[in-house]
């Protein structure tokens, strides 16, 4: 178990090194002088030269890479050109809404999808199954920004239960800030639940026909115990995989939702950084998002180990 | 619902049908047999003969659209009460399964849950039916592993099924099935997936456990060699019906239905099949195949494949008639065979 975790950690480190290298190369192979691109068409030659100096673009490429890589190891992702603060600081300021939005959305998605998927499979072909399948298709095909706007119209404008957008004022309490996350989290959660529902249903259909489920029934236990303890646990491996994928998608999917609901999260930071050509912030955000992907994968791999005694890395 | 004092299970005119939109598959169609206390009854037939559906009907484990159409399944429990399982609800079955009737299956590789240790799975069986602490359940599970003669039982208690061989897993299945000392064990082809040497060990183990625990065994198989090893009485099924029934000695001495005779001829026999010079005879097989049970002929279902067939066989379903001292046969020419 410990050995498997260690093997996975080493794998993670290798992946992250590759990500850092790729991000570094992408910025260097982009046509044009990054400094000139950042400063725009009206910049003078002196401005460009001084920015090149500041960004260290005059040094040989290997030296640049080592400087960049060394910075990352120390937690230094560079300085934001526009905000004029360290990139790590800019990301940290925006991390809270994105983190809670992702966690809440995932919790909502799992809470809806797992029971619905399990019951759909158990009662396959029933009215419940057909309704669930149709709703999942519907949810999967709705764009998140549209559903977000509809929810906003109903629950914020007409019923007045929530604010239409924002994250509360500067002095807003934690409860107030979380209250602002309800609508976006439900929007993202419902849409993500579609995929998890379909996978849960398929995985359950598979295992419900397995011999050990028949054995469990022959032992004289309740159907609840047969389904949850013997079938569902065996279906968990594919379900965990798709929940991991959903979590990764949510991190990037949050970008659109944050924009619709005016949330000051990492997603909207990335959008504005792209518009302002704030390269260090884009690079930093890219690394953080990639890092989260890798971390989610690691967590899922560890969960496999807990669920299935046959899994070894 | 009367039952002889020494009869533990009596299946009477059981019909289990699978009704589709356009057709009815009569998987079991009027099957009758009795199983005596402490004895082993073998139900023999090819795939599709209805032997597995019979056992699933007794356990209440039929999958849709299969359902018992008519007939009785009388079962005597440990308190000597007689129940008709054909009328049982799933709730009533739950109290019975595992405790009074247990089952072992053909595929020991897939019949155990891969995510729980064998100790857990045996202990679960006991905990389901008796008020027992987890440590007590574990102790009983270990005891059961010893009963089924697993070497180093204490060391294997926390093994997962994938760490065991097929034979070991079938022993675990047997340990689990017998954990609550059921009065009836249904064994659905328990040795078919195993190597021949392991097969013999498992059969031998079942025989010894029967002496020890006193349970009756309903043994489903297609292999007459296995029947000779373990059964006291034999029921031969074909296309959902009983075609011959006899005590084991009588059956092997003289078959009274052409199908049984054909089945026995299909069993390879080195002495018979190998000539004096070592040249090989072609293996015998019954010509043709089992007819689809959705579309059975009105007469004898075996008639199209039968060497003894006469025109009269086609007219009506032959009744089961006394064919030997203790045997019955569904063949109008049983006395000529």
UniProtKB/TrEMBL annotation, chain A:
The chain crosses the membrane at residues 9-29, 99-123, 135-161, 181-199, 235-261, 281-307. PROSITE patterns: ABC_TM1 (PS50928). Gene3D superfamilies: MetI-like. This is Peptide ABC transporter permease. Residues 95-304 form the ABC transmembrane type-1 domain. It comes from Devosia nitrariae. Belongs to the binding-protein-dependent transport system permease family. It is found in: Cell membrane. Keywords: Cell membrane, Membrane, Transmembrane, Transmembrane helix, Transport.
TrEMBL record, chain B:
Residues 9-264 form the ABC transporter domain. It is found in: Cell inner membrane. It is a peripheral membrane protein. It holds the Pfam family oligo_HPY. InterPro entries: AAA+_ATPase, ABC_Ni/Peptide_Import, ABC_transporter-like_ATP-bd, ABC_transporter-like_CS, Oligopep_ABC_C, P-loop_NTPase. The keyword Transmembrane does not apply. Keywords: ATP-binding, Cell membrane, Membrane, Nucleotide-binding, Transport. Its main location: membrane. Belongs to the ABC transporter superfamily. NCBIfam families: oligo_HPY. This is ABC transporter ATP-binding protein. It comes from Devosia nitrariae.
């Amino acid at each position: 178990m410990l050995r498997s975790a260690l093997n996975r950690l080493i794998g993670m480190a290798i992946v992250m090194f590759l990500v850092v290298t790729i991000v570094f190369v992408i910025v260097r192979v982009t046509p044009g002088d990054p400094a000139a691109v950042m400063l725009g068409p009206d910049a003078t030659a002196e401005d460009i030269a001084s920015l090149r100096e500041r960004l260290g673009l005059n040094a040989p490429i290997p030296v640049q890479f080592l400087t960049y890589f060394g910075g990352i190891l120390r937690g230094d992702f560079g300085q934001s050109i526009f905000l004029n603060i360290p990139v790590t600081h800019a990301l940290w300021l925006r991390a809270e809404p994105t983190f809670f939005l992702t966690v809440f959305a995932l919790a909502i998605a799992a809470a809806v999808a797992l029971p619905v998927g399990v019951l759909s499979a158990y009662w396959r072909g029933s009215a419940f199954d057909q309704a669930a399948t149709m709703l999942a298709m519907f949810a999967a095909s709705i764009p998140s920004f549209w559903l977000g706007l509809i929810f906003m119209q109903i629950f914020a404008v007409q019923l007045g239960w929530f604010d239409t957008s924002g994250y509360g004022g500067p002095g807003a309490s934690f409860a107030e800030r979380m209250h602002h996350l309800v609508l976006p989290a439900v929007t993202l959660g419902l849409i993500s639940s579609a995929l998890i529902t379909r996978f849960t249903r398929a995985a359950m259909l598979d295992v419900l026909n397995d011999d050990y489920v028949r054995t469990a029934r022959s032992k004289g236990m309740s159907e609840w115990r047969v389904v949850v303890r013997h079938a569902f646990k065996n279906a968990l491996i594919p379900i965990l995989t798709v929940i991991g994928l959903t979590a990764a998608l949510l991190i990037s999917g949050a970008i659109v939702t944050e924009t619709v609901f005016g949330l000051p999260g990492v997603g909207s930071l990335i959008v504005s950084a792209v518009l302002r050509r704030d390269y260090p912030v884009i690079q930093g955000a890219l690394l953080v998002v990639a890092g989260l992907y890798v971390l989610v994968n690691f967590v899922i791999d560890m969960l496999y180990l807990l669920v299935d005694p046959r899994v070894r890395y | 619902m009367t039952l002889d004092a020494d009869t533990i299970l009596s299946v009477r005119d059981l019909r289990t049908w699978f009704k589709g939109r356009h057709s009815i598959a009569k998987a079991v169609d009027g099957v009758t047999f009795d199983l005596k206390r402490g004895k082993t009854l073998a139900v023999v037939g090819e795939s599709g003969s209805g032997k597995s559906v019979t056992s699933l009907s007794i356990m209440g484990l039929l999958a849709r659209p299969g359902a018992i159409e008519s007939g009785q399944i009388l079962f005597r429990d440990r308190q000597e009460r007689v129940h008709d399982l054909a009328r049982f609800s799933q709730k009533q079955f739950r109290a019975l399964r595992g405790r009074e009737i247990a089952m072992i299956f053909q595929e020991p590789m897939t019949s155990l849950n891969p995510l729980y240790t064998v100790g857990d799975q045996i202990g679960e069986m006991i905990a389901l039916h008796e008020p027992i602490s987890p440590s007590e359940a574990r102790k009983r599970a270990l005891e059961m592993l010893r009963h089924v003669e697993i070497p180093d039982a204490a060391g294997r208690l926390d093994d997962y099924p994938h760490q065991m061989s097929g034979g070991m897993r079938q022993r675990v299945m047997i340990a689990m099935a017998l954990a609550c000392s059921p009065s009836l064990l249904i064994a659905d082809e328990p040795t078919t997936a195993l190597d021949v040497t392991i097969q013999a060990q498992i059969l031998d183990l079942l025989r010894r456990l029967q002496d020890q625990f006193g349970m009756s065994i309903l043994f489903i198989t297609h292999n007459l060699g296995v029947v000779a090893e373990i059964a006291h009485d034999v029921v031969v099924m074909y296309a959902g019906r009983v075609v011959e029934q006899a005590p084991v000695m009588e059956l092997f001495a003289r078959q009274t239905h052409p199908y049984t005779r054909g089945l026995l001829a299909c069993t390879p026999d080195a002495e018979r099949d190998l000539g004096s010079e070592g040249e090989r005879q072609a293996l015998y097989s019954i010509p043709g195949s089992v007819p689809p049970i959705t579309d059975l002929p009105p007469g004898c279902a075996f008639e199209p494949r039968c060497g003894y067939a006469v025109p009269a066989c086609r007219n009506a379903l032959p009744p089961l008639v006394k064919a030997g001292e203790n045997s019955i046969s569904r063949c109008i020419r049983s006395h000529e065979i």
